[in-house]
């Protein structure tokens, strides 16, 4: 239990330093700064694999799935890469939300900070619930597998790109609870006008980002559960990927048009993981196979996006 307490305490310290020290003064996050922070978070995440190895080799942490230290590390890295790759689609949706509500770049980091803080809480609950389901009901893995295949099919069709935040159910519900101002006054989520408390576009964007992240978690958490049902590996890989999402957003949101084929990488990853779940009781793949497929799919999408000229891509379409 103390391992969980220390890990969560470190996450809280990271978040406090992020908002209270490194981003105390609000400013526009430039690509260079975002690249440095992305590198820092990725380094922290991969370095944590050494902690995973130590925990599982020393027997300090509970090991309900009887993983060897090497297998634990491979499952952790694979889970982290799955979450990191699926975050690319999350970046696209966040960019659409910020654009729809005209959130100035100087306040976007603040909105993402609180959004990710809430996402950590919700994902922790969903992970515990998902692990409990798989542990208690073996057949639930087939449900998760079919759901991931369906999500891959929807992503292949491109339905998720037809998203308009102002037409969403969430926006309509927020509008019923609070009047919504059309202008932004500083970084406040609420303002008072003529004695009436009104929500600013920052608050509306925050709520929609929060709830869309929960929807994305419905894809990513079952995908990681296909790799392992060990609760600490699932939780740590997921949370460390989320912590790097803010800097990743500022790094790649300006380059979304360049990664034209990355969606196909996500389709391959979700389809592979979904099939692995469906055949998990019949076919047992070595850990390195999953890691290789996910890495090749992700790198392949990036390389194809950069190597194939856009005009050629349009002709193919």
What does this structure look like?
The chain is mainly α. The chain has one domain (2-316). Helices cover 73% and strands 3% of the residues. It has twelve helices and two strands. The protein has helices at 2-22, 31-58, 69-100, 105-136, 140-157, 169-177, 201-225, 231-243, 245-252, 262-278, 287-307, 310-316, and strands spanning 190-193, 196-199. It has a two-stranded antiparallel ribbon. It is globular. It starts with a helix and ends with a helix. The model is unreliable at 312-317 (pLDDT under 50). This is TerC family protein. It comes from Meishania litoralis.
Structural class: mainly alpha
Mean pLDDT across all amino acids: 80
Helix content: over 70%
Q: Strand order, main sheet: write it out.
A: 1-2
Low-confidence parts lasting 5 or more residues at pLDDT below 50?
312-317
Quaternary structure type: single chain
> Number of DSSP helices?
12
Q: What is the makeup of the main sheet?
A: 2 strands, antiparallel
Could you give the count of β-strands?
2
Please render the helix and strand layout as text.
Layout: H1 2-22, H2 31-58, H3 69-100, H4 105-136, H5 140-157, H6 169-177, E1 190-193, E2 196-199, H7 201-225, H8 231-243, H9 245-252, H10 262-278, H11 287-307, H12 310-316
Antiparallel strand pairs: 1-2
Tags for this entry?
2 strands; 317 residues; 12 helices; mainly alpha; two-stranded antiparallel ribbon; single chain; TerC family protein; disordered C terminus; 73% helix; 3% strand
Brief overview, please?
This is TerC family protein. The protein has 317 residues and is mainly α.
